[in-house]
Design brief:
about 325 residues; single chain; 13 strands; 6-stranded parallel sheet; about 35% helix; about 15% strand
Length: about 325
């Protein structure tokens, strides 16, 4: 089987620090290669893969801002689609734009919907319902207007994360600094629970960081910048708990799964996919308010870190994700 994997070109695949779609595309590609599948990864030229790499740009447009994002996207997507006949199947991890080629190519395409940036893009997805083979990354992140082949949870390479039974005493916020992700709420939770908080992630909203986050930084509340793969496991594993007080319906939370793979329980606002990722009372707590989060932080020791690790490895491993996708590939190619 020959598969073309289309990754975004905002960041390198896999990303150096931030880039969840690129990370999942990489995990799919490398997992398939280990199963003997012939994979061509369409990504930036600095990307890393054990398969064949095809690219139209040296770096992603978020890492080299002199580039025009739309131009890169156009050239990148067309580079794969004009060679669609070379593949048995195309796996699209690049949102709705590649769908425009659906009726112009003969190669079947499976599209993982990594989330909806806006409800305004639904009509594009809806148009290609009959041929698109949509996959959701959580049951919560589905549109009633679309037909889905399955839900496949994002998978992580468990070897990248080390279980830690003896954490330190700090709480951790791990994600982009943005109102949607609840950075300010995490600070309030830490202050009220009288625990140290480490904040790690890229600053996506400069004004928010300047007004809501920076003035509160001190010995107790510390911003340590973005942590790459080499630091991620240690940072997550040493945490007493991960705070994930999101303010939007998050399609999936990679950091939530990553934390649990290290044995670290998660305290999250009960929105979006969180009830699918977290077993309340067993791998963390689902809460609705800051006060409930503080209460959860005070009883986090009732959560066995072994439970977090066992749950995450059973549900969110790269091996499971690749198994699930291979079943779908064979289903599509057999016409079932």
């Amino acid at each position: 089987m020959k598969v073309g994997i289309l990754s975004p070109v905002a960041w390198r695949t896999p990303p150096r620090h931030y880039g969840p779609w690129e990370q999942v595309a990489s995990n799919i590609a490398e997992g398939l290669i280990k199963r003997g599948i012939e994979v061509t990864l369409f990504a930036t030229a600095d990307s890393i893969t054990a398969g064949k790499l095809e690219s139209i740009c040296e770096k992603g447009y978020e890492e080299d801002r002199t580039q025009d994002a739309k131009v890169l996207e156009c050239l990148h997507i067309s580079n794969l689609m004009e060679r669609a006949g070379e593949f048995d199947l195309i796996h699209n991890n690049f949102d709705f734009l590649p769908l425009a080629y659906s009726y112009l190519i003969k190669t079947p395409m499976i599209t993982t919907i990594h989330g909806f940036s806006s409800q305004k893009i639904i009509p594009v997805y809806k148009k290609y319902n009959p041929v698109a083979n949509y996959v959701s990354i959580s049951n919560s992140d589905r549109s009633p207007q679309l037909d889905y082949l399955a839900t496949v949870y994002n998978g992580l390479d468990t070897k990248d994360f080390k279980f830690n039974a003896q954490p330190e005493d700090y709480l951790l916020y791990f994600g982009r600094i943005h109102p949607d992700k609840g950075t300010a709420e995490a600070i309030e939770i830490a202050k009220k629970s009288k625990r140290k908080l480490l904040i790690s992630g890229i600053v996506q909203d400069e004004q928010y960081f300047k007004e809501k986050i920076a003035p509160q930084l001190n010995d107790q509340i510390e911003y340590i910048g973005s942590a790459g793969p080499e630091k991620r496991s240690t940072l997550l594993g040493n945490a007493f708990a991960l705070l994930h007080p999101i303010n939007f319906e998050e399609p999936f939370g990679l950091s939530v799964a990553e934390a649990m793979l290290c044995g670290t329980p998660v305290i999250a606002f009960n929105r979006g996919s969180m009830p699918e990722l977290i077993k309340h009372g067993e791998t963390g707590f689902l809460v609705n308010t800051i006060e409930e989060a503080v209460e959860a932080a005070n009883k986090i020791k009732t959560v066995a870190r072994d439970n977090c690790y066992d749950w995450a490895t059973s549900q969110f491993s790269c091996d499971k994700m690749v198994d699930d996708y291979l079943k779908l590939y064979h289903q599509i190619l057999s016409g079932a």
